[in-house]
Design goal:
Elements lengths: L15 H12 L13 H10 L16 H17 L8 H4 L4 H17 L11 H89 L2 H4 L4 H4 L5 H31 L1
Helix pairs in contact: 2-3, 6-9
Length: 267
């Protein structure tokens, strides 16, 4: 039937106002422009009105604004055409652009087709508003259930991701602490080696100082004028003891500090 409607058919000479009046009266809408029917929802309901119940109205989105949502409506319409064996190819890519001429031609064809079924007499028991509302509620309910499942899946995924992140952070923290402890242990070892070297130098210079002190106390050198400038206010032993005490306190203080730092990291 649809294939018999050619481009020179009288259907394509129906004006824009007549098409809008036909849509508004049949579906109880208030369209003022042909482009407002570009979403494909009007066409779906017109076929549903011609063949009551054949269109899954819960899949039809009357609030479609994006091309993606409009394409979904036209997919529903094309599936119904295939089911009813209506040989009409829908130029979806052109219709979703909202071009007035393309949409007018398709609606002219649709009016001609609907008028050819049962002489254009519609089912009096068909309530277009109620049908739209019922389809919208079913679509919203399915969308809600789908969103709930998606939300549950996301929560489970986020929970698993959070546990993995905590575990990863824990491992990272342990590895960092272990690295700090190793670095501090190395510093302590280096300080101990430095102390050993200082003690050896101390012993060396102490021996030299002791030799000088003994030499200055000999009878041969005691009365020489050269001895007076080198005679210290403190004895060489006293100077050495002070120097030794200072070095020991500082070196072992450093070791104790790094030892405490390593204990903090391990705890």
């Amino acid at each position: 039937m649809a294939s018999n409607i050619g481009m020179m058919d009288s259907a394509y000479f129906v004006g824009r106002n007549e098409i809008l009046t036909w849509i508004n009266n049949r579906l109880q809408l208030n369209l003022s422009r042909i482009e407002e029917a570009a979403s494909g929802a009007v066409q779906c309901q017109m076929i549903d009105m011609t063949y009551p119940g054949v269109v899954p109205m819960h899949k039809v989105n009357f609030d479609a604004k994006t091309e993606y949502d409009m394409i979904q409506n036209y997919k529903v319409l094309q599936e119904v055409f295939n089911k009813l064996k209506i040989e009409k190819h829908i130029e979806v890519n052109r219709l979703v652009k909202g071009r007035p001429l393309d949409n007018l031609e398709f609606l002219q064809w649709l009016k001609r087709y609907c008028d050819s079924v049962n002489g254009g007499i519609m089912n009096e028991n068909y309530n277009p508003v109620e049908r739209r509302l019922k389809g919208g509620k079913e679509r919203n309910l399915k969308g809600f259930n789908k969103s709930s499942k998606s939300l549950q899946a996301n929560n489970l995924h986020n929970s698993a991701s959070g546990d993995a992140a905590v575990s990863k952070q824990g491992k990272t923290g342990v590895a960092a602490a272990s690295a700090d402890v190793q670095a501090l242990s190395k510093e302590v070892t280096d300080l101990k080696l430095s102390v050993d070297l200082l003690e050896k130098e101390r012993d060396f210079y102490f021996a030299k100082l002791r030799d000088i002190e003994i030499l200055c106390q000999t009878s041969e050198v005691e009365n020489l004028p050269v001895r007076v400038p080198v005679k210290p206010f403190f004895t060489f032993s006293q100077v050495f003891i002070c120097l030794h005490t200072f070095l020991v306190i500082n070196c072992y203080g450093c070791i104790s500090y790094y030892h405490l730092k390593s204990m903090e990291h391990t705890s």
